[in-house]
């Protein structure tokens, strides 16, 4: 949904492409997924626990993406602002995010802006299920590792989406996820970048009113 929307001719997508560069790795675990695994690679590694020191032999996709991120971060011409790792969740419902905890209260508050905006755009995204933590068991995740590596203008999240259903606010009935519902959430993630950068005055040129992408 994110990719299809960003390469579309939708007015929001055009504005985003005019102002931002998106680097997208569609899948870091192709061999594991091919075998039917949803967490482990062909060699049995949980790739989202090896960000601190990925092996080019044992974790080649992870190693390659990490090197790309570090190269961009060290390039003075690039302002690396967002890292979002996308996963399915096997027990919780809805879409939600994990973020990091920082001693700098102002940085911590700024980190909450994007998921709050996404919650306004996507009925299946739950801000109440979104959490910010520094659990030791999550130390090897991309979100935790890069949150400690990148500077205070960078925001690192894990976007989790339920394997099976979501509950719309104010109701108690679970709605099964469909392929189209997942695609819709992806589109809403993409359009939330426009809301975020409008809020932060990056997108300055006037825009005609644009209907929400649901």
From TrEMBL:
Keyword field: Carboxypeptidase, Hydrolase, Protease
CDD domains, per database record: M14_AGBL4_like
Family annotation (Gene3D superfamilies): Zn peptidases (3.40.630.10)
Any single GO BP term: proteolysis
Xref: InterPro entries: Cytosolic_carboxypeptidase, Peptidase_M14
Superkingdom classification of source: Eukaryota
Residue ranges of every copy of the Peptidase M14 domain listed in the record: 1-197
Keyword Amino-acid biosynthesis: no
Cofactor(s) of this protein: Zn(2+)
Pfam families, per database record: Peptidase_M14 (PF00246)
Active site: 160 (proton donor/acceptor)
Protein family according to the UniProt entry: Belongs to the peptidase M14 family.
PANTHER family tied to this protein: CYTOSOLIC CARBOXYPEPTIDASE, CYTOSOLIC CARBOXYPEPTIDASE 6
Protein name: CBPC6 carboxypeptidase
Organism the protein comes from: Casuarius casuarius
Lineage of producing organism: Eukaryota, Metazoa, Chordata, Craniata, Vertebrata
